[in-house]
Amino acid sequence: MGRKSEISLEKRSAIMALHQEERTERYIASKLKVSKTAVHNTIVRKRETGSLADRVRSGRPKATTSAEDRRIITMSKRNRRMTASEICAKINESRENRVCVTTVKNRLLEHGLRGCVAVRKPLLRKVNKVKRLELAKKHRDWAFEDWAKVLWTDESKFEVFGSKRRVFVRRTPKEKMLPDCVVPTVKHGGGSVMVWGSFCAAGVGNIVKIDGIHKKEQYKIILQQHAIPSGERLIGKPFVLQQDNDPKHSSKLCRGYVASKETEGTLKNMVWPPQSPDLNPIELIWDELDRRVGRYCPTSEKSLWEILKREWNAIDSETIKKLIDRMPRLCVKVIEKKGGFFDEKNV
Length: 347
Known about the structure:
Layout: H1 9-20, H2 25-32, H3 36-49, H4 66-78, H5 84-92, H6 101-110, H7 126-139, H8 144-147, E1 150-159, E2 192-200, E3 203-210, H9 216-234, E4 239-242, H10 252-263, E5 267-269, H11 282-294, H12 301-313, H13 317-336
Parallel strand pairs: 1-4, 4-5
Antiparallel strand pairs: 1-2, 2-3
Helix pairs in contact: 1-2, 1-3, 2-3, 4-5, 5-6, 7-13, 9-10
């Protein structure tokens, strides 16, 4: 049988107030609608302890010892992918009375160790971290005016049919398979559109639909007809060209063309560390564009491309300014983490 609930502190105070008026326990119980036993126990508690507060109870003894608690936490921190069931099995190997998985989960939660979906990030080797750190240290003192001269560029792919993001619906357990509560998928997808885009502090540059396999020859045409014209129009000469280390970008053909434009004084090429999409603010532009496109549910590549163009040109200056303002703080975070990963939400 469970422990009965305690009467409130306010009622205990009222009991003592009526008791001091020399009211009987029966009268107090009837007046405050509590049991006569509760009235009697409250008066006795006040007389014995001088307090109306709850008595301290020892509670049920813990199923694990302090040493076992430390072992549970240590195992979890040494192997972050170790499940509560696996930890429980290890603990029970040296115990006569087995503990349950819930107990292990409770010990982990008490130390703030919650089960979460692991964040997916590009693999960072030591040399990658060194190059990321070099970039951050080189540009940590850049002001907004310096970052405003950078033309950020990248490619991204958008799906026609459905979204890779999780979709939440409100339903009862029995409505799980209702058409309105199911996200339909197709085996081979409903098509996609690959685009190249650029932006800077002054606004978005050109957005280009990439047809077929994206090769170095096609990327050189994008540089000639879209990247450099966008940089000259939005920033002027010389602007800073940012591009990642995709094999097409770093091909001899494209490197030679960018070098010739650098010699002419048209641009300055920014040396970009590999495996670093999290440093490129255009990734956040792609996320914003994906959210906007998702509102329209395009059903064909043609409609998707039309929506992409319209929403790309509708990206406002305030959104862009926030991304440029973020760059100095981003450099600080990279330096703090010595070139490693950081929580992008806290930048």
